[in-house]
Design brief:
With about 240 residues, the chain is an alpha/beta fold. It has one domain: Ribonuclease Z/Hydroxyacylglutathione hydrolase-like (Metallo-beta-lactamase, Chain A, 4-Layer Sandwich). The protein has 8 helices and 12 strands. The strands form 2 sheets. The chain has a 7-stranded mixed beta sheet with strand order 1-2-3-4-5-6-7. Strands 8-9-10-11-12 form a 5-stranded mixed beta sheet, with no helix packed on it. The radius of gyration is 17 Å and the shape is globular.
């Protein structure tokens, strides 16, 4: 685990045959009110939990898990994590929260062929990703997370319920899989994805002042160049209409 700021910690994903999402722990450590952003791939829960404990945090301080979206590489080990922190709440954007509560796994696997492959390879039973969601998030929500303030941004395109978390004070953006380093973006061919919406989401993010970019995969960016997200949107624009 790497410390990004006094209130933000980074647990890098450990990619397998399928990528494992990064996880971020946010909140002032003295608040004992910490938030885990995303979970990761199946089988990675032990690593994520041990990473939290490795910095001296108590698991009882983890009060909630916020999902940037519910694709398998982000939600795969959610059950493992909630088993270790059973008191933690689950917060998800409304569009994907309702699917999780119904046991509708289309937003988890994205396509039928991938679902069949993963269930066979990892031994995942149908209905494994049915969860009770404690809070359904909406774009425009403002969250007090361990003494730090984060804005919820609804940024559909990669998935219908994708969100970003933005800390205006420190100019930190956690965009899930909407935008990465190196002018890369998330795919837009899975269930609930939409290229035109992804373009609009990128253009919306481009209006923010972002110094630190903490994406779901690949490297994090500690000094984001001015105009970076706008340039990314321009480069991908012809493919997103």
């Amino acid at each position: 685990m790497k410390q990004i700021t006094k209130e933000v910690f980074f647990i890098p994903g450990q990619d397998d045959m399928i990528p494992d999402s990064h996880v971020y722990l946010i909140g002032n450590p003295s608040s004992k009110d910490l938030t885990l952003v995303d979970a990761g791939l199946m089988g990675k829960g032990k690593y994520k939990i041990e990473s939290i404990q490795g910095l001296g945090f108590e698991l009882t301080d983890v009060k909630r898990v916020i999902m940037t979206h519910t694709h398998l590489d982000h939600i795969g080990c959610l059950g493992e994590i909630l088993e270790a922190v059973p008191h933690a709440e689950l917060w998800v954007h409304t569009h994907e929260a309702e699917l999780l509560e119904q046991g509708d796994e289309r937003a988890v696997y994205g396509m039928d062929m991938f679902q069949s492959m993963c269930q066979a390879q990892y031994g995942i039973r149908p209905g494994a990703f049915k969860f009770r969601v404690d809070r359904k998030l909406e774009g425009g929500d403002t969250l007090d997370l361990g003494g730090t303030e984060w804005e919820v941004l609804h940024i559909p395109g990669h998935s219908a319920g994708s969100i970003g978390l933005y800390n205006r004070h420190d100019k930190i953006l956690i965009p899930g899989d909407t935008v990465y380093a190196d002018y890369a973006i998330g795919r837009f061919d899975l269930y609930g994805a939409n290229g035109a919406q992804l373009k609009e989401s990128l253009l919306g993010l481009a209006e923010l002042e972002v110094d630190i970019l903490l994406p779901g995969h690949n490297r994090i960016v500690g000094a984001v160049p001015a105009g970076y997200i706008l340039e990314t949107a321009k480069q991908w624009g012809p493919y997103l209409s």
